Amino acid sequence: MNSIDKKYSEEIAKLKQEVYDANMLLVKYNLVIHTWGNVSGITKDRKYMVIKPSGVDYATLKPEDMVITDMENNVYDSKYKPSSDTPTHTLLYKNNPEIQGIVHTHSTNAVAFAQAGKDIPCFGTTHADNFYGPVPCARALSPEEINGAYEHNTGLVIIETFNNRKLDWKATSATLVKEHGPFVWSFKSPKDAVDLALTLEEIAKMAIKTLIISNNSAQEAQKALIEKHYYRKHGKNAYYGQK
Amino acid sequence: MNSIDKKYSEEIAKLKQEVYDANMLLVKYNLVIHTWGNVSGITKDRKYMVIKPSGVDYATLKPEDMVITDMENNVYDSKYKPSSDTPTHTLLYKNNPEIQGIVHTHSTNAVAFAQAGKDIPCFGTTHADNFYGPVPCARALSPEEINGAYEHNTGLVIIETFNNRKLDWKATSATLVKEHGPFVWSFKSPKDAVDLALTLEEIAKMAIKTLIISNNSAQEAQKALIEKHYYRKHGKNAYYGQK
Amino acid sequence: MNSIDKKYSEEIAKLKQEVYDANMLLVKYNLVIHTWGNVSGITKDRKYMVIKPSGVDYATLKPEDMVITDMENNVYDSKYKPSSDTPTHTLLYKNNPEIQGIVHTHSTNAVAFAQAGKDIPCFGTTHADNFYGPVPCARALSPEEINGAYEHNTGLVIIETFNNRKLDWKATSATLVKEHGPFVWSFKSPKDAVDLALTLEEIAKMAIKTLIISNNSAQEAQKALIEKHYYRKHGKNAYYGQK
Amino acid sequence: MNSIDKKYSEEIAKLKQEVYDANMLLVKYNLVIHTWGNVSGITKDRKYMVIKPSGVDYATLKPEDMVITDMENNVYDSKYKPSSDTPTHTLLYKNNPEIQGIVHTHSTNAVAFAQAGKDIPCFGTTHADNFYGPVPCARALSPEEINGAYEHNTGLVIIETFNNRKLDWKATSATLVKEHGPFVWSFKSPKDAVDLALTLEEIAKMAIKTLIISNNSAQEAQKALIEKHYYRKHGKNAYYGQK
Questions:
Q1: Is any Cβ of chain B less than 8 angstroms from the Cβ of C180?
Q2: Which listed residue, of B58, C22, C80, D81, carries a Cα 20 to 30 Å from A186's Cα?
Q3: Is pLDDT of A243 > 80?
Q4: Could you give the domains of chain B?
Q5: ipTM for the complex?
């Protein structure tokens, strides 16, 4: 077992608590059942990640059970194995030096879009307040990608989706992995990523009901409205909230 | 910071408590997640409005955090900024001298109709008991209206809808803002507006299921039934309830 | 105010408690919001009915608030007005000398079938265990029936449905009133009627999902299965349960 | 009443507690209403089964109320009658010497697939993590099978489905009985069977939403992904969890 330098003790302890709290929020928000889902956070120097252990019951989970890894997925000072999705998390952190927290869930409505292989269309302001434009569904992994370094390749396909579509990681902070489910991230904190995962589930639910009402013919919200609502909450001219 | 005359102290304190209670009811009724939604009330002389602050967590919200504005959206004696939807609220109060409370939510099923750009049809007595005829979906705002005084223009489009369709503000006390969500008001109190917002969400949910069962071909309830149920609960011949 | 003979004191007190408990079960089962819904029971000699008062909040409701009426809808010894649906209840009790409890709700999925004007098809054993064959949707009331003795006429249309279709009131103990919602009754007790109202809501929810999966082409369960399950729970050869 | 040898006392007492706990989990997981559903377990020598009594209220159920039967459905040392589905359980235990727990529910979404007479398609990794390939819907029982030894024949039809389709009982540990509902089993324990019943309900819910989004045209997940996820959690190369 590898050990990390003692100078990290305080930061890691605080991060473990933060990541633990964010994981428990998945349960409170009804975004997971059983041992599903995982949230991670990262140290300030982006050398270590803290993530939920694999397959441990939320009811018995403790802050100290959170697992420490480096960006090459090596484990440090931990009694548990990390989430099997660890290589997806670390790749996204490496690719995006501003991401502060990542969450993966199998929440019902977001998964349904991933299983249908469709983007979540931006049908209205609830969506636009939080995600700029459609939440993309990535292409399916090839059998070679699946049988190879699967979780790493999952991260690569997410990155490919953002590159090909020229998406902004901060403005559209989620992807659906096809036939699988959502990954959501935040430039602020692990908790904020979980808050966004709840928002994603809610807009997916609204979108399904919008499709039913419109007989699958609903149109995306007009661009002016999407921009208005996104920038009402984000960027230098934001006027929602107290900041 | 503007200050209001001391003669309002007692009335404002009471109104803040009432508006706070009504906002917290949004959480109890599961009509909002995060910091979404807002409820307002108005002083007897209709000079001041009290409304939820923008983007503050419900868990930490206190009655004294409610924000005071006048009808031109100036803020008085408040440590927080008011809800960003403030200009929609004040315009509706000015336009309708009998409205006593207004609520805006992003409740799932009502938003779905707004996103589909459709009225909620009056399919039965549950609807007719509470809203006379379909709950209208307003036209989309133009890009100019969105990029201008957006929240004020949202109020104007609601008013335009009621004028064009010759609707009665008391009998049909809600509108869907297209691509956005519901605004609901009450001629009684902020709490009553929230009760109506829950009713609206419930009839929207029933309407979606009615569309599924009927393969999108359900007809609106017959006029005699709509009138019977509306007037069973409202007006001088009402016989529902204890009054 | 009329008064009933003192010999009923004990029976009425017990019945009020029973009817109150059954009404509160509507809240526990999530079958109602606000002041919606009502349950009634009847004295052994079928002279008096006890029913929820009209439009009173469940949170403040007390057993002694239940209202006593006779079979001609006259009120006795009560501080509140009875449910506005009272004439529907009394007519059903008079028409069916074995009914011991009646409940009316606006539960979401059952109302959706009533609004679509469709029977709830008997798609499987969950339904057949509790209701023999489809739960019928009555015809719409005519404008004359609506503008006349509306609640009485609602009961007449339910009776007409059972007569025309030659249905057994005990085996199929529920009807959907078109454009309105369900009435459910029990030959056992008010509580049992509420239990059946929850079952009805559940089978309506299952039926809607069955329609979605089958693209509205699902077939009713075969007759042999419907009979098997109904008679597994009911009649002299029943073998479900401990009796 | 038959009696079992005293040497079983300790094992049976432990099994009754285990089966009771698993039955109560059905309530906690919202998989049942009323007295619906049942879970069973089996002794190590596979001579006796312990199962929920028929039609007893969960609120008053106690561990000692669990009923003991042998594999020919004879009851031992029990004050209650066993679940009416007992012959289905015992037949599955006899046919599969490794099954350790069986559960039958009428959970909403799984029943909807059974009522539509359709397999639950394997649309994604949430499904593949837990069930290998589609969850099969058995053929309908014939009128003769229904009118004969119905519950025994239900077990026979499940076995026939697995034989005809050459399915692996461990990998695909659930079946839908057509026009009825799901049976789920576990090679580990009664509790694990209930955990799988919750998973089944969740993937059925996801599948219905996937069908809505895709206008009933969604494709099953690719074979490489199904195998990857199933073997990530099961078999000698599994790397999910802490084992």
A1: yes
A2: B58
A3: no
A4: 6-234 (3.40.225.10)
A5: 0.97
